[in-house]
From TrEMBL:
Ranges in a coiled coil: 320-354
Name of protein: TolC family protein
Leader peptide range in chain numbering: 1-23
Record keywords, A-Z: Coiled coil, Signal
A Pfam match: OEP
Protein source organism: Chitiniphilus purpureus
Family: Belongs to the outer membrane factor (OMF) (TC 1.B.17) family.
Domain of life of the source: Bacteria
Length: 423
C-alpha cells in the first residue's frame, strides 16, 4: 500500500521539481523604468548576453585542453597465449604452454609533451582574452545603442520645446494680424513651421523605436521590456580623457594581447613540428607466466623512426608559415589599434572644443537674440523674419550641441573599448 502510494506520488513530485527548475532558469523580468540608466543595462547585458556566454564557454573548453595536451598517452595492455596444444585447445592460463602480459607506454621525448601543454595554455589564454574582448565590445555596443536612443529622445524633447516656442509665436502673430499690424502670411508661416516640426517628430519617433529595438536585441530582450526613456549620457565607467591611450592600449587591449598569445602558440607549434622529426619511444614491461606462477619479467624499448621526412618537412613548413602569419596579424592589429585610437582622440578633442564653444558663447548669444526678438515682436516692434531666423538658429545650435555631446560620448566609448578598460 505504501509503495503504491509512493509510486503514485512520484510523478507529481517530479513534475513539480521540473517546473521549479524551469522557473529558476527562466529569463528574469526587468525592473520598472528599465532603460533610463546605463549601469543597469550593462549589468543585464553581462548576465544575459548569449555572445558573452559563448565566449566564456569557449575559454572553458580551451582551458580543459591544457590537461589533455600535457597528459601521457594511454598505455596499451597486451595478453598473449603461447604454445597452445593443438589437441587441447583452451584459453585457461594454467593449461597452456605460457602466458605473456605486456604494458606499453608511449613516452614523448625531447620536451614534446611540455610543448603541447605550452601551445594549449597559450590557446586557453587567447580564448580568455577574446572573452574579455567580447565583454568590452558588448559594453561598447550597449553604450552606442543607448547613445543613439538618447539622441533620438533628446531630439524629440528639443522638438517639443521648439513647438511650444512656435505656438507662442503663432499667438503673437494672430494678435498682430487681428489689429492689422501683421499680415496673415506670418501666421500661416508659423503654422507651416509647426507642421514641419510635427513631421520631424515622426522621423525622430521612428529613429527612437529603431534604436530601442537595437538595444533590446543586445540585451536579449523584447523592445517592450525597455519601459524607461534615457535621460542623460552617463559617463561612469569610461576612462579619463587625459590618459595616454596608446600606451594603455598596448598593454591592455584584449585583441592585441590575444594576437600575441596566438603568435606564442604558433611558435610552440613550430618548435613541436621540428621535434617531431626526432625519434619517439615506447616502453614495454612484460611478465611471463608458466602454469600459475610468474616465472620472469621483460623490458623492451621501441623507437619510432621518422622516416617520412617529406611529411615532416611539410608539417614544419606549415608551422613556420602559420608562425609568420601570427606575427604579421599581431603587427596589423597594433597598427589598426593605433589608427583607431588616433581617430577617436581627434574626435574627442573636437567634440570637447565644440561643447565649450556652444556652452560659453554661441548658444547663450543665440538664446538672448531669440528672447529679444520674441519680446520685440510681442510688443509690436520687431520683424517677423528676424524672429523666425532667431528661432531657426537656436534650433540648429541646440541640435549641434546635442550631436557634439553624443560624439564626445561615442569617442570616449570607443577609446574605452580600445584600451581594454574593465567597466
Amino acid at each position: 500500500m505504501t509503495a503504491h502510494f509512493l509510486r503514485a506520488l512520484a510523478g507529481p513530485l517530479l513534475l513539480a521539481s521540473a517546473l521549479s527548475a524551469y522557473a529558476q532558469t527562466s529569463p528574469e523580468t526587468p525592473p520598472d523604468r528599465f532603460g533610463e540608466t546605463l549601469p543597469t543595462l550593462l549589468d543585464w547585458a553581462e548576465q544575459h548576453s548569449p555572445q558573452l556566454q559563448a565566449a566564456r564557454y569557449e575559454h572553458e573548453a580551451r582551458r580543459q585542453q591544457i590537461v589533455s595536451a600535457g597528459a601521457l598517452e594511454d598505455p596499451m595492455v597486451a595478453i598473449e597465449w603461447e604454445n597452445i596444444d593443438k589437441n587441447k585447445l583452451t584459453l585457461d592460463p594454467r593449461k597452456v604452454g605460457g602466458m605473456k602480459y605486456s604494458l606499453t607506454q608511449p613516452l614523448p621525448l625531447w620536451g614534446k609533451q611540455a610543448l603541447r601543454a605550452q601551445v594549449a595554455r597559450a590557446g586557453a589564454e587567447s580564448a580568455a582574452l577574446m572573452a574579455d574582448g567580447t565583454r568590452n565590445q558588448l559594453h561598447a555596443d550597449v553604450r552606442d545603442a543607448y547613445a543613439t536612443w538618447y539622441r533620438a529622445a533628446a531630439s524629440l524633447r528639443l522638438n517639443r520645446q521648439q513647438r511650444d516656442l512656435l505656438q507662442l509665436m503663432e499667438i503673437s502673430a494672430n494678435q498682430r494680424y487681428a489689429v492689422g499690424r501683421a499680415t496673415q502670411a506670418e501666421a500661416l508661416r508659423v503654422q507651416t513651421e509647426i507642421s514641419m516640426l510635427d513631421n520631424d517628430a515622426l522621423a525622430l519617433q521612428l529613429a527612437a523605436a529603431q534604436a530601442r529595438a537595437n538595444l533590446a536585441a543586445l540585451l536579449n530582450l523584447a523592445p517592450e521590456a525597455l519601459t524607461g526613456t534615457p535621460q542623460a549620457l552617463d559617463e561612469a565607467g569610461l576612462p579619463e580623457a587625459s590618459q595616454d591611450w596608446l600606451d594603455v592600449a598596448r598593454m591592455r587591449n584584449p585583441e592585441l594581447l590575444a594576437a600575441r598569445q596566438a603568435a606564442q602558440a604558433a611558435q610552440g607549434q613550430l618548435d613541436l613540428a621540428r621535434r617531431n622529426k626526432l625519434p619517439g619511444l615506447n616502453l614495454t614491461v612484460s611478465a611471463y607466466q608458466m602454469g600459475s606462477q610468474i616465472t620472469s619479467y621483460g623490458l623492451m624499448l621501441e623507437f619510432q623512426l621518422p622516416l617520412q621526412q617529406g611529411a615532416r618537412n611539410a608539417e614544419q613548413a606549415e608551422a613556420l608559415a602559420m608562425q609568420r602569419r601570427a606575427r604579421a596579424a599581431e603587427a596589423a592589429q597594433l597598427r589598426q589599434l593605433e589608427r583607431e585610437i588616433n581617430q577617436m582622440r581627434a574626435m574627442l578633442d573636437n567634440a570637447d572644443r565644440q561643447i565649450v564653444l556652444f556652452d560659453r558663447t554661441v548658444l547663450p548669444q543665440a538664446e538672448l537674440t531669440l528672447q529679444s526678438a520674441l519680446a520685440g515682436y510681442s510688443a509690436g516692434k520687431g520683424e517677423f523674419a528676424a524672429l523666425l531666423e532667431a528661432q531657426q538658429q537656436v534650433k540648429r545650435l541646440r541640435q549641434m550641441r546635442l550631436m557634439a555631446e553624443v560624439d564626445r560620448f561615442a569617442a570616449l566609448n570607443a577609446l574605452n573599448r580600445l584600451v581594454g578598460a574593465q567597466q
